[in-house]
Fold each of these.
Amino acid sequence: MMITRVFSKKNRSLLAELVRTDFKLRYQGSVLGYAWSLLRPLLLFLILYVVFVRFLKIGGDIPHFPVYLLLGIVLWNFFAEMTAQSLGSIVSRGDLVRKIRIPRWIIVLSSSISALINLFLNLLVVIVFLIVDHVDLLQTTLWLPLILLEIYLFALGLSLFLAAAFVKYRDVNYIWEVILQAGFYLTPILYPITLITSPALQKLMLLNPMAQAIQDARYASITHQTAISRQVLSGGLKYVPYLLVILVLLAGLTYFKRQSKFFAENI
Amino acid sequence: MSQQLIVDSHQSTAESQESVAVRVENVGKVFKLPHEKHSSLKSSFINFRPRQRTFELQQALKDVSFEIKEGEFFGIVGRNGSGKSTLLKLLAGIYTPTSGLVKVNGSLTPFIELGVGFNPELTGRENIFLNGALLGFSRKEMQAMYGDIVAFAELKRFMDQKLKNYSSGMEVRLAFSIAIKVNSDILLLDEVLAVGDAAFQKKCFDYFRKLKKDKKTVVFISHDMNAVREYCDRVILIEKGSVLKSGSADAVAQEYTKLFLTDKQNFETDGIKRWGTGKVKIEKVEPSLQKSKITISILNSFKKAVEEPVFGLTITNPVGVKVYESNTKWQRVATGNFNKGDRALVRWEVPNIFTNGTNYISAAVANRDTTEFYDWWNEAAAFIVDKDEITTALTLVKSKIGIKKINAS
């Protein structure tokens, strides 16, 4: 009943309109327009491919490493883009917050959906490379939607928290930028996890939901010859990443709900 | 038997609640205003010791209670900074009250300003759909109303142009045309809604009148006592965050007018408002309003000896148009010679031809040829006119109307 109220017809159409506006405005005045949504990850991938696969020759023992690399980057970029955009969403939409009564979370949700649309465009690029690289279609690919959902919920929890905190503390965005940068290197995106020689460190890294999700996604859709949290972590530890996701989501929701009453006066 | 009683009492409360559209109970709103804005973590670390984190508690509203009945045209008036806007935002659900309760029975317009969310980079058409969605319409509903909105705004030719190329008048017209489509049970209307040129203003007021005729529940926020008198069934006056008076439009409008009379220190005396060489200083400008005339006493003190000075007076109406201007030279009044230290009390008597609202008095004193101004004081004082009769003309002169019916046969 709560869900039907939250996703009422009114809220759904408002959400759709906000997303549509975001999308229209994003590439305004650029010659290639929407094509940039595809070109950007493609070019980025090209650079990383040349540097890491050709020059540094990392990932030699992992089959289809270029696509493996690309999928990791695409998933991480989605996470980084969604949280960074959502972080500023309430403040940059201050005019709405101060002048109209709309559910505040719709603003965060709309920026998260813009990022989601980008993710799907990027996944199209990944699929093209999967075909080009002759990757066999694995049955486990069916898990992929669930893994994406996990990343989305994790990012959503963080987004809600960050967006609400940013209203009060304007340097949250600088801190988050640094955390994202650190996270990018602490997550096995550019390098295979096997590069970390200490097993304890490896385990620690795989507790991170992003590391777990990216490794799972690669395992599910590209190759089974990669380390995943479920196998590396023993006992109850393997549930830690999922628990973290749920915890972050609940904390984000609670904090956002409590703070959102005062957005209009604090902005 | 007792069962019966309970059912009865339940029904009667349900009935009495039905007729109340909005109930505001003991509402208070406190804002925490930091003395120095700690909107970054670093500064809140630096000011970690609680002593240094000073902030001011500003009580914007305290203990405000009132009820708005269904079908009522309810006015909220008050001066700038009285807490009117805060109350409006509380009603709209944009602010949360610090204490007390705001109970709304039915749907209520969610916005307090026109054109919320308008984006200059989008076309007129796109903005209509975006704004419509913010006001709670689905795309389908907007598609059905689109033609109407464009026709009402008279902007058909401009729909595919970006909003940034619109004039401000066009933008407001577009926003207003969407806003009036909102069909919530309770409407929040700010008088600033009625903007634009005269022709469009007429449309706005026609809309207000239609709402009144249709017995809509309307909350109307205004400075304009003429508009309040014309539309409102009941009015509350907010002053310093509390309800100062509530009652009929006439009674409250009178009280509102009085606020300005007791507050003569309202006028700034900065360089723009006052200038001159200072040989004569205007000490005091005191208006006193009677029914048919207004008497203004102006006290001048002479810092130097002056022969035949010229005393002048200007009165401007609430929108700043000059309604009366005269001086001792034009009226060929001899003023005499004054020595240093002398004072002159000049009394003006002007028939009360002024229209409702705040009229401003400017006073001046100059040399014989009016080539040197000793003191010129713009808006030195003000007086509030509050007549029963209204007019849209510049002046309101007492007149008589006689009607004689001439039969056809």
Amino acid sequence: MWQHILLWPTQASTISRQVDGLFVFLIAVTGGVTLLVFGTIAFFAFKYEHKKHPVAEPIEGSTPLEIVWSIIPLGIFMIFFLWGASIYMFEAKPPKDAMEVYVVAKQWMWKFQYQTGQSEINTLHIPVNRPVRLTMISQDVIHSFYAPDMRVKADVLPGRYTTTWFQPIKAGKFRLYCAVYCGTDHSAMIGEIDVMEPADYQVWLQGGVGQGSMAATGQRLFQELGCINCHRSDVQGRGPTLQGVFGRPVLLDDGRTVMANDDYVRESILVPGAKIVAGYKPIMPSFQGIVSEEQLLSLMAYVKSLSTPPPAEPAHKPPAAPPSAAGVAVP
Amino acid sequence: MATATQLVKKENYLNTDYSIKSWLLTTDHKRIGLLYLVTITLFFFLGGFFALLIRLELLTPTGDLVSSDIYNRLFTMHGIVMIFLFLIPSIPAVIGNFFIPMMIGARDMAFPKLNLLSWYLLLGGGALILYSLINGGSDSGWTFYAPFSTQYSNSQVIAAALGIFVAGFSSILTGLNFIVTIHRMRAPGMTWSRMPLFLWSSYATALVQVLGTPVLAITLALVFLERVFHVGFFDAHLGGDPLLFQHLFWFYSHPAVYIMILPSMGVISEVIPCFARKRVFGYAFVAMSSVAIAVFGFLVWAHHMFASGISVYAALIFSLLSYAVAVPSAVKVFNWTATMYKGSIHLRTPMLYAMGFIGLFTMGGMTGLFLSALGIDVHVTDTYFIVAHFHYIMVGGAVMGYMAALHFWWPKITGKMYSEFWGKVAAVTIFLGFNLTFFPLFIAGYLGMPRRYHVYAPEFQVLNVFSTAGASILGIGYLLPLIYLFWSLRYGKPAGNNPWNAAGLEWTTASPPPTHNFEETPVVTWEAYNYDQLPGMPEEEEAGVSGN
């Protein structure tokens, strides 16, 4: 068992150095104060032991001292607060150029879906030195994506997307745990983060291509499920067009404005009546129980692709739109 | 010790009636305190037994002692029993019940029958939890996180939750009784500024019990409705919000930490002045810090949720407030330390426990500062760092305080002295065993070992072996008092009214006290901790080791 002993977790991401820096600072400050308190107590217990110091001197207290030992700790705490908050704020803002991976957690496995179409279970392959952003959802209970070597943890909730990101700084295989207790095999819900050199990653990408990119899969679903009948690429459909919608504010029927983000798209598919776009009728059926979490993510990737300027490729080539709009499935 | 010579012993609350009925229907706050003492001691050793099995399982990285399902039930039942059936009632229900009326010079609680009802409610809650245990136990974790607890768990979640629900009312009624008693029953001259600090912290605790516990009851009722009737509060598939559960749960369960620790702080504020023979340093600041902790304690709950997907701005505010609540705790530690300055210190058993409390509580508090720092919390939350941190507060702090209280007031409760030698041995054993059990877990946590893992990676084994070794020592440390305190009941030397020459009204009456506490209602004309006007502490007899 001794050969495995570990004294400091590997620093495998950019953020891990920041976290460790604050951790060491906290150990130094709190360790120093703790030793001071222990030392003082031990010293008093020795020096004023009743045999040496038979009569106690009555001391009431000291207001200036109370103020001093309230204000100084508070000042030190504010340093801890600001430093900790700055790391958290940094963690909360994924870089714009981050590579995106979708994560679906379920009792007791991790599923990863790549924009490029690959999907994997329990192993996340990513290239070194490139920020990766994870958009995560759970199919059942709460899980938590925990990569201790990256110093990153984010709970994975049912019914709502959460995100986290990190930028690996060294290649290798790193630990992945579920950190929120999720039932019988919680401790078996572990995986691996395989950080690869860019060339190796390219090779890996070639190998695992499945059925085309996520957006393409989403587009196929968009047709199969008949979404395309109403959400046409022009503005003539019975539903609002989805061209350029993602990431922009949407005006609703009741006058509110919401941001068209992951959760909005998800809700619009599962509970269409919750938020009706201004000028449209609540006629869309719910797809709850019809589409899986993975399919939802593909649909989302497709909707997102409709708003991303560069891929003006065939991704959203308007098919020979059936003007009938009679709800008949496209032949 | 001869017993025949004591035939003409004075009547006290113990020898006034020996029938079972006189105990089960008693409204004497002292007898109710003892009923609680017996009850929670049983629960403590039950919870300890689960801890023993957990630590044995974790001796090796593989799951070789019990199955995952059993392991999950073990840590769940350990948490539920220890928190709701031992720690929450511990000092308030045993020491508070026994001594709050005596410390304010009253004959009993404001509502003696309600007091008895509180004990029966704890028994009822305990019985439901035992029922859940016998039928396989719950595996929801003591935190009952939804939707796992409401939709996915196949265990006795409802029975366990109902048990906690019922035990919660015991806590509410006890708190209510304390508030009214402290307001209405104080003896003439016992002004608020003359009250011993144990009363201030008991009062602050009672406020939290009365205001916080109903929220727990509501939360558990919602779990019940969702699990049994599938009403969607928390499960996203039913239209609920899983984070709502966590907000509601921690709104009670963070303040509940203060229900556990504030009474211990009050005990320390009694013990240190007595064994340093001087007034507590900065009385008003220590008193007010208890109230400040109780108030701020309600405003920090979401620091349990920094990695759960709450908004960044909410996290910033809760981090800031968590640092605010640390200030009054720090003030207390500094005041206790300053109380020892130029004192005349007697390192007797209660004092050793009190010093142990300060040490372990300080460690727990300091690591709390790590967890309040957002960037650190994300990495260490839900790891063994958290497990170590809250055991330092709730076992290192709260249980050490409880042990200090038990050893300080034992002579008053029973009229007997325990073996000072074995008392000291146990105090040191518990302190060392505790640190060996839980300090390695801080390291395991920072290395990334998630909590509630039945099977873990081999690199964590060394630390876990240390921890299990420490737990064995800790277990022996907790068994020792059980033996020598029982022993003292029969063989202990008579304590006399005031074996420590301690200040406080409870020491002015007989040990054990008469049923109505005082021969006549005391009139208070002095400040608390007037040790400069009291005789010194009697010397510990060197030959008193074996007590015969």
